[in-house]
Automatic annotation (TrEMBL), chains A, B:
PANTHER family: 5-NITROIMIDAZOLE ANTIBIOTICS RESISTANCE PROTEIN, NIMA-FAMILY-RELATED PROTEIN-RELATED (PTHR34071), FLAVIN-NUCLEOTIDE-BINDING PROTEIN (PTHR34071:SF2). Pfam families: Pyridox_ox_2. Signal peptide: none annotated. It comes from the Bacteria. This is Pyridoxamine 5'-phosphate oxidase family protein. Gene3D superfamilies: Electron Transport, Fmn-binding Protein, Chain A.
Length: 216, 216
């Protein structure tokens, strides 16, 4: 089995039974996500910002404007990237055992700037397709000027941990006698009907790769 | 208008037109969330972990086991708490203008331990009700032992920023002529039918405050 590394940063000290140790679990969590939360240090204090990302093999890519301070600060320091899926609200008989079902991946690494044009396009394709599968080939490719305005960073997936909780509440045995409902309220991300740009030219239908994502 | 503070940490340097400046926008984002992403510094590198939270007036509460290193590290350092709602995937005619619609709140502050019993119970109530409205009164209250095992931290909402993007894509004018669909794919969090604990005693129905959250 292709295992995840275990370092001081990725070893779980709390509830190690909730950790995942195979690399496919990491890929599954990353590939199912839409945004990550990027942690950096700015002037000595932590900053957490939501942003898009993409994965290719064992590299995670993020991008931003070349003018964004958070990304500019990136290449010279370790960052943390966390992707979380909330799967359910765990409703126990006791306040104490309330919890959530979730899957999360936490990645630590020092980002490297991606500057070569082909590598940059490959990374941007991964980031675009993560958010909107099928869009890279359906839309106008980045111009030279747009490419120059976009900073791309690569983070190796060499130091990562996976943590999850699934299943029913873990109430203490004596509480099972209480007259209190217990279980899980499932949570998932849903996609509504696409809203066309008011400036959309008439006669352009919603493409299949977008329409098929609608869940409600 | 009750405005948000503007400090070096909360002033937006990128796209300031996406910032929110009134306090009610901050409250709305926090009150609509289920989990936050907590950023701390551990051994010099950033760490971002998902966790529950609650809000009462101008204080944000988080909690954890007294044995959790991330929370133990909290009281002596500034932390960052970010709550993000993903509202849509912005599908532009150009790769470059792909984006997301979102609302996010970023809070900076130095957590204070909440140790007095009544204050701790009040904070835990806020955290529980944030995740599961109606559950505090419907379930068994924390015992003295459970309270002792739970660390509660209070973070003042005095340094916070709100950022959001809403609306259609912002394609460059010449791209409007392209034969490419553009618009927004709405994203929202949905709740499925409650799954009873396999150990649930027979004859206990799903309470109304849980059943009414189901969206699909």
């Amino acid at each position: 089995m292709n295992t995840l590394s275990s370092t001081d940063r990725t070893r779980l000290t709390r509830l190690p039974e909730r950790s995942g140790t195979d690399r496919s679990a990491l890929y599954d969590i990353l590939d199912a996500g839409l945004i990550c939360h990027l942690g950096i240090i700015v002037n000595g204090s932590p900053r957490v910002l939501p942003t898009g990302y993409g994965r290719l093999d064992d590299t995670l890519y993020i991008h931003g404007s070349t003018g964004a301070s958070s990304l500019m600060a990136g290449p010279s320091q370790d960052v943390c990237v966390t992707v979380t899926h909330l799967d359910g609200i765990v409703l126990a008989r006791s306040v104490f055992h309330h919890s959530v079902n979730y899957r999360s991946a936490v990645i630590y690494g020092r980002p490297q700037s991606v500057t070569e044009t082909d590598a940059k396009l490959t990374a941007l394709r991964a980031i675009t397709e993560q958010l909107a599968p099928g869009q890279w080939d359906a839309t106008r490719a980045p111009s030279r000027k747009e490419l120059a305005a976009t900073a791309v960073l690569a983070i190796p997936l060499s130091e990562a941990s996976v943590k999850l909780r699934q299943g029913p509440p873990s109430d203490d045995e004596p509480d099972h006698a209480l007259d209190v409902w217990a279980g899980v309220l499932p949570v998932h991300q849903a996609f509504g009907p696409p809203r066309p740009d008011p400036l959309l030219r008439p006669g352009i239908p919603v493409p299949g790769h977008i329409a098929q994502r609608v869940t409600s």
